[in-house]
């Protein structure tokens, strides 16, 4: 099941880029701009067909998104039906159409999740308290200390803890993360049975919890230690009814603010020579794959939540003044009009080319960081 969810997540991620490009496609055609090609994936081309509307629809070998090729994409082009010949307002609409589609996709996904079950990923996550009901609250293994009782018992990250049966046969059901530390302290030194769930199957294992004396000895040596050696985490699903669209809008705002704050923190750390802190704020394709892979075991809602957040992030990143992205192109056009001197094709190519190289260098750097972080 988790493999199917992982595949679904990857396809949904690619679809977000296709949706973004479809926004450009629709708005361009409605404003009299000719579309030469709409492609799924990136070249080299695997298949293509000329449509009745006059544009080429293609499927390409690199399945990492999609693209729209407009006629005369330079701002200085003057041929009828070209992007350059369109009015400034039309160009702005085309540039922002992809952002709008990703915002809409994020809102729809958040709204659907609010109806079927919304994962709580952050503290104080937006919701309407009077119309919110917790429908699931699992206690997961968040971390396992090497050499600990939990490690020796075979517990793994993201196992769902169900109950601990003590030496007298009394079962202690695990209902929240705060319950585990005092419980294991109370049962210190005992051989207990631990029931947990992994990949949809309920399993059982035994563990001899560390004694208080052993914990003190380890702590005196500066080592972190717990009676079971497991750091718990909670996975909570909340459901709304009439307020689902309100929750959708609220989450778009909340995660937008959080994303901008994260970008600000990353840039601040970078400018202050703290590259390691900046790298903690970003993730590339490898990082997204790792998150989807780990999250797929949590179920459909978690994967859908991550896709919604990625869609929102794509919208935010594409509105920023980065030359290789939509916001950058719009910014360059605005600057050209403010100085009253249209950019030539040569200058545009240099500006966007330099921006593209910087973006590619950033993607490569983040990918290397992700590989070191997750593998």
Write a short abstract of this structure.
The chain has 375 residues and is α+β, with helices and mostly antiparallel strands. It has helices spanning 2-30, 88-116, 149-152, 180-186, 212-220, 244-271, 275-279, 285-295, 300-319, 326-338, 345-374; strands spanning 35-50, 56-70, 118-119, 133-144, 160-165, 171-173, 191-198, 201-208, 230-239.
What would you note in describing this structure?
The chain has 375 residues and is α+β, with helices and mostly antiparallel strands. The protein is built from eleven helices and nine strands. The chain has helices spanning 2-30, 88-116, 149-152, 180-186, 212-220, 244-271, 275-279, 285-295, 300-319, 326-338, 345-374, and strands at residues 35-50, 56-70, 118-119, 133-144, 160-165, 171-173, 191-198, 201-208, 230-239. Strands 3, 4, 5, 6, 7, 8 and 9 form a seven-stranded antiparallel sheet that branches. It has a two-stranded antiparallel sheet with strand order 1-2. α8 packs across α11. The two termini are 23 Å apart. The mean pLDDT is 87.
Would you spell out the secondary-structure blueprint of this structure?
Blueprint: H1 2-30, E1 35-50, E2 56-70, H2 88-116, E3 118-119, E4 133-144, H3 149-152, E5 160-165, E6 171-173, H4 180-186, E7 191-198, E8 201-208, H5 212-220, E9 230-239, H6 244-271, H7 275-279, H8 285-295, H9 300-319, H10 326-338, H11 345-374
Antiparallel strand pairs: 1-2, 3-9, 4-5, 4-9, 5-6, 5-7, 7-8
The profile of the biggest β sheet is: 7 strands, antiparallel
Q: Point out poorly predicted stretches.
A: none
Structural class designation: alpha+beta
Q: Overall mean pLDDT score? A: 87
Helical stretch count? 11
Shape: elongated
Distance between the termini: 23 Å
Radius of gyration: 26 Å
Beta-strand content bin: 15-25%
Please give the share of residues in helix. 40-55%
Number of strands: 9
Secondary-structure element series: HEEHEEHEEHEEHEHHHHHH
């Amino acid at each position: 099941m988790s493999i199917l969810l992982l595949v679904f997540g990857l396809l949904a991620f690619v679809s977000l880029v296709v949706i973004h490009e479809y926004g450009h496609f629709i708005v361009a055609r409605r404003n009299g701009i000719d579309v030469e090609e709409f492609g799924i994936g990136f070249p080299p081309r695997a298949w293509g067909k000329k449509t009745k509307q006059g544009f080429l629809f293609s499927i390409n070998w690199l399945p990492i998104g999609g693209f729209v090729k407009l006629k005369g994409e330079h701002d200085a082009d003057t041929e009828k039906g070209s992007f350059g010949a369109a009015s400034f307002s039309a160009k702005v609409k085309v540039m922002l159409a992809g952002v709008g589609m990703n915002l809409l996709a994020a809102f729809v996904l958040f709204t659907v999740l609010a109806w079927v079950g919304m994962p709580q990923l952050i503290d104080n996550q937006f919701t309407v308290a009077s119309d919110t009901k917790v429908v699931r609250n699992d206690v997961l293994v968040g971390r396992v200390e090497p050499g600990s009782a939990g490690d020796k018992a075979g517990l793994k990250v993201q196992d769902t803890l169900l109950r601990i049966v003590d030496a007298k046969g009394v079962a202690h059901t695990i209902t929240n993360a705060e319950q585990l530390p005092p419980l294991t302290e109370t049962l210190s030194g005992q051989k207990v049975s631990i029931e947990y769930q992994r990949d949809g199957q309920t399993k059982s294992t035994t563990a001899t919890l560390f004694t208080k004396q052993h914990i003190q000895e380890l702590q005196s040596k500066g080592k972190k230690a717990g009676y079971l050696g497991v750091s718990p985490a909670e996975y909570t699903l909340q459901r709304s009814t009439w307020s689902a669209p309100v929750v959708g809008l609220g989450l778009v705002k909340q995660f937008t603010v959080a994303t901008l704050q994260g970008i600000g923190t990353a840039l601040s750390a970078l400018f202050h020579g703290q590259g390691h802190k900046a790298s903690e704020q970003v993730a590339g394709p490898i990082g997204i794959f790792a998150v989807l892979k780990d999250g797929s075991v949590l179920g459909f809602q978690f994967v859908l939540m991550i896709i919604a957040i990625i869609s929102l992030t794509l919208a935010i990143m594409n509105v920023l003044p980065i030359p290789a992205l939509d916001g950058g192109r719009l910014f360059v056009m605005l600057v050209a009009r403010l100085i009253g001197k249209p950019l030539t094709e040569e200058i545009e190519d240099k500006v966007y080319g330099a921006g593209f190289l910087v973006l590619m260098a950033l993607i490569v750097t983040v990918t290397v960081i992700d590989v070191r972080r997750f593998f």
